[in-house]
Write a structure and sequence with these properties.
It is a single chain. The protein has 550 residues and is α/β, with parallel strands linked by helices. It has 17 helices and 15 strands. It has helices at residues 35-45, 76-81, 113-120, 138-148, 152-198, 204-216, 218-232, 240-254, 259-288, 293-313, 318-384, 425-428, 431-447, 465-478, 491-494, 521-532, 539-549; strands at 2-10, 13-19, 24-28, 62-69, 89-96, 102-106, 109-111, 125-127, 391-403, 406-415, 423-424, 453-457, 483-487, 499-507, 512-518. The chain is elongated and about 150 Å long.
Length: 550
């Protein structure tokens, strides 16, 4: 339940702290005193959007914080899934900055507004004045019936419908892809055949380019290698190797007498061996270089093919062309298997749809049963609220298609008078009748839910006298199982509350502000008397107030 509410710099509220008791809490005050402002602030904690217009002082942030007792509500799995620390004492805080930026916190952990809304829907129900019209909303009617039915059939149907919708969407995407691929198949096949016929190897381009360079300069390369070999050893005494052999012989004669000459002899011998090997390699390389016009043409044509394919497909290497070829092959293979995949998926969709139909039938049956219980359950409350001849029934008709909410259209049929025709309540119920209907529905709805707190914002609109007293008695009964907070103008309701809060305005030299405080017993008598008559109240009103309080 809601234990406390702190509001700072919100609209007409400068700063206020409100402590709420359990059971039945009444909030009263003159029109315009700020009762709905308090609800607006509380709405921020439940994920409603806000802007800088809510700031009373534009250079300071607005802060709204509430403390809830959530023990026994089964919220720990929700907290675990949201990766939040759970505690039976829940603190929600919302801050609106002058820059219009907003921050939200759950037990001091920053959260996004969608999560705040999900959590809020599990701990409090705020029934504002305009929400009486939700009785005419099909989605609300179905939610009400599903809650009264326990929600199991709705959960099963939702799971079946999600599976069906996911499979159907996958089938549509696959069918669309198949149609598009069929259009592209000939072109893809042409591209693949061209690349496949090229028999590309990922590393061939560099080897071909090197061979092309060699073939283009074959004569110069052969001549250069031959010249180098001749300079090393041309069978004359002037060649490098001949002179190096002479140097080796000279050093060999003196190596026994001169230590450094021996070391130099070793080095000359090593150089002679190395140069001898180089000479042999040069001769071999020169012999291997041959110019072939036929091979030159083959290499150039192969490179031209590779360059053309690279340019055509916008890639930089043969490796990219090979990857493209493999991708085209995979796409063509995929096209060839699409028909069998589509047929298999169609069977899955048909099976999933059959499961949706079965689940929808169970959901309809559960709603029919809940509708009968609702119609039967609210009639005593309607009689207590001054409509003894009222008739109410729930009508379910099948819709043309299956949707996320099922296969039903829900209508609430109503007539307040004996013998009158049952018609859609939105067309036949007056404002006061709608308010009483909604109170009866809420009374039954909350008896089946775990919601710990409900706030009524002037649900008593259009009622007075004995009916007002009946409304108060019904709220008292609701308060036996949950916290009920009622913003009311009716003394008959305020008198029955266990806690009475008064909203009022104060004006200083700078501004008018809204304030709220809890009334003691004597103050409550005066407040109820004022609601009955005038301010100050008459002696008769004071006596009536005491009787109502008693």
């Amino acid at each position: 339940m809601l234990q406390s509410l702190h509001i700072e710099n919100y609209a007409l509220i400068r700063q206020t702290d409100i402590n709420f008791g359990g059971g039945f809490v009444a909030i009263t005050g003159e029109t315009g005193a700020g009762k709905s402002i308090m609800l607006g602030a509380l709405g921020l904690l439940l994920g409603q959007r806000a802007d800088a217009a809510v700031l009373a002082e534009k250079d300071r942030k607005c802060v709204v914080e509430a403390v809830f007792d959530v023990a026994g509500l089964g919220l720990k799995p929700f907290f675990d899934e949201a990766d939040l620390d759970y505690d039976d004492r829940l603190i929600l805080r919302r801050e609106i900055m002058p820059s219009t930026k907003s921050r939200a916190f759950v037990n001091d952990t920053p959260v996004q507004l969608p999560l705040l809304r999900q959590l809020g829907s599990r701990i409090i129900d705020i029934h504002s004045q305009h929400q009486t019209l939700t009785l005419a909303d099909s989605a609300y009617r179905m939610e009400l019936l599903d809650t009264l039915a326990g929600g199991v059939a709705r959960t099963e149907y939702a799971a079946a419908y999600r599976r069906y919708a996911d499979l159907k969407r996958e089938l549509e995407e696959l069918t669309s892809a198949e149609a598009q691929n069929r259009k592209e198949q000939d072109y893809l096949q042409f591209q693949f055949d061209e690349l496949a016929e090229a028999r590309l190897a990922a590393d061939e381009q560099q080897a071909l380019e090197e061979e092309s360079q060699l073939l283009a300069h074959a004569e110069a390369v052969r001549e250069g290698l031959g010249t180098a070999a001749a300079l090393l050893d041309d069978d004359t005494e002037q060649s490098v190797l001949a002179r190096l052999r002479q140097a080796k012989t000279a050093l060999a004669h003196i190596a026994d007498y001169h230590a450094e000459a021996g070391a130099l002899l070793t080095r000359v011998d090593s150089a002679l061996i190395e140069l001898d090997d180089i000479d042999s390699t040069l001769l071999s390389a020169a012999d291997s270089v041959t110019y072939s016009p036929e091979r030159q043409q083959q290499v150039d044509e192969r490179l031209a093919l590779i360059y053309r394919l690279e340019k055509k497909h916008g890639v930089d290497s043969v490796a990219d062309l090979v990857a493209l070829r493999d991708d085209l092959d995979a796409r063509l293979q995929n096209i060839s298997t699409l028909d069998s995949r589509i047929n298999a998926l169609m069977e899955q969709v048909d099976k999933a749809f059959a499961e949706v139909q079965t689940a929808a039938d169970r959901l309809t049956a559960s709603r029919c049963k809940a509708g009968e219980a609702l119609a039967k359950g609210i009639l005593p409350t309607l009689r207590e609220l001054g409509m003894p001849e009222a008739r109410f029934t729930v009508s379910l008709t099948p819709t043309a298609t299956y949707g996320p909410q099922g296969h039903d259209a829900v209508a609430f049929l109503f007539n307040a008078n004996r013998g009158g025709e049952l018609r859609d309540l939105a067309k036949v119920a007056s404002g006061g009748e709608l308010s009483r209907l909604m109170l009866a529905v809420k009374s039954m709805h909350t008896s089946r839910s775990l919601l710990p707190t409900i706030i009524f914002d002037e649900i008593d609109t259009g009622v007075s006298g004995d009916i007002a007293g009946a409304v108060g008695r019904i709220m008292c009964r609701m308060a036996e199982r949950m916290q009920v907070v009622a913003i009311t103008h009716l003394p008959q309701i305020a008198a029955k509350a266990q806690q009475h809060l008064k909203v009022y305005k104060e004006t200083d030299d700078q501004r008018t502000v809204s304030c709220i405080r809890e009334l003691n017993v004597d103050e409550r008598v005066v407040e109820v008397a004022v609601m009955l008559s005038s301010d100050p109240p008459t002696p008769a009103a004071m006596q009536t107030a005491k009787e109502l309080m008693a």
